[in-house]
Amino acid sequence: MTPRALHLLGSAGEGGAETYFVDLVRALHAAGLPTSAALRANAGRERALAAARVAYDVLPFSGAFDFMTRPAVARRARADRADVLVGWMSRAARNMPKGPWRRIGRLGGYYDLKNYRGFDLLVANTEELRDWIVGQGWPAAAVRMIPNFAEAVDGPPAPRAALDTPEGVPLLLGMGRLHSAKAHDVSLRALARLPDAFLWIAGAGPLEAELKALAADLGVAERVRFLGWRDDPWALYRAADLCLFPSRVEPLGNVVIQAWAYGLPVVAAASAGPAALLRDGEDGRLVPVDDPEALAGAAAALIADPALRTRLAAAGRARVANEFSQTAVVARWRTLCQELGAGRCAA
After folding, report:
1. DSSP string across 248-304
2. I need a labelling partner for 174 at 20 to 30 A (CA). Which of 199, 242, 263, 321 fits?
3. Architecture of the domain spanning 5-149+325-339
C-alpha cells in the first residue's frame, strides 16, 4: 500500500521554509507518493501547487481563536485517507488534529517544542538541530534528520541590463528575508569595501527602508539593487558571480545548498547552519559573524581568482549530488514513513 500524506503550512510570509515546503510537496507528489496540502492563503504557493496537480485546501491558520482550521484539516485528512500529517513550523503544528494518522513535525529551526506534544516523530533538517531537540528531552528514537534538497532548474540568467547592472562588473547576490537575522546590512558594509562590485538583494521584509537608507549612508546605493521577493531564483543564481550569505542566525542555510546546485561559489558567515555545511576553502568560504571586513576580504579574493571560484563551485555541486539531491531526500522521506509501520504514513 502506498502511504498518503497531508502537509500543513500555516505561514503567510515569504521565506526559505515556505519555498521549500512547495518544493518538497511537489517532489513527493511527482515521485508517486500521494501528497496533498493545507496552507494559509498565498497566491504564489497556490499557483505552484495547482500547476503540479497537488490537491490543497486554503485555511485560516489564524491563531488562538481559530475554530475552523483544525476541523477542516481533519476533514481533509479523512477525505484523503491520509496515513500521516506533516506540520511545518509551529503554527501548523498547533492546528494538527489527533486522529488515526501519525503526526510528524518538520522543523527547520529552534521552535518551541511544546507545540509538538503528542507527535509521533520530529524531523530536523540538520544534525545540529536534531541534537538540540534530543537535548530538550525529546526521545532520540523519535527524531530523524532529513536534509533539504536542491535541484537546479532550467532557465536563463536574469539579464543584467534589465536591473541596471553593467556587464563585466563583479556581481554579488544576497538572498533572504530583509530581517536582522539575515544580516544584509553586513553585505552592504562589505560592498563599501568592494568599489567595483554590484550587489543584488532578493527578499522582502520589515527592514527594507532601513537597508536602503544604510546603502545611501554608505555611498553604495548606486551599486545595490533591491529586487523584492522573486519567483525566479534560478535566474539570479545563474547571473551572479558570487553568493554572500552573512546570516547572524541560521539553523541550516538553504541558500548555500541552492547556490551550490547552480555552481555559484559562496561566502557565508559562520552561524550554526553554514558552519556545519561549508568546509572552508574546500567548497566555500566561512568568515566570522558580523564582520563586514572579513566578508569583503573573502569576496575580493574570490573575485580576483576565477580558478578558485571554479574549484569551490565544482566541490559544491558534488556536495549536492552526493548529499542534497532531490532523489536522495525523497527516498529518505519514503523510507521514514514506511518504517512508522502498519501502512499508516506517507510523506
Report:
1. SS-SS-HHHHHHHHTT--EEEE-SHHHHHH--BTTTBEEE-TT-HHHHHHHHHHHHT
2. 321
3. 3-Layer(aba) Sandwich (3.40)
Query: One-letter amino acid identity for 51?
Result: A
Can you tell me the distance from the alpha carbon of 112 to that of 49, in angstroms, rounded to the nearest whole number? 28
Host H or E run for residue 122:
strand 121-124
Q: pLDDT tier at 1 (50, 70, 90 boundaries)?
A: low
For 252, the grid coordinates are 541550516
- Alpha carbon distance 26, 28 (integer Å): 6
pLDDT at 347 over 90: no
- Residues 213-223 have pLDDT tens digits of 999 999 999 99
Kindly state the cell numbers that stand for 280. Answer: 572552508
Strands 143-145 and 121-124: parallel
Say which CATH topology domain 161-323 has: Rossmann fold (3.40.50)
- What's the DSSP call for residue 212? H
Average pLDDT, the chain: 94
C-alpha cell at 96: 494538527
Asked if residue 251 has pLDDT above 90, the reply is no
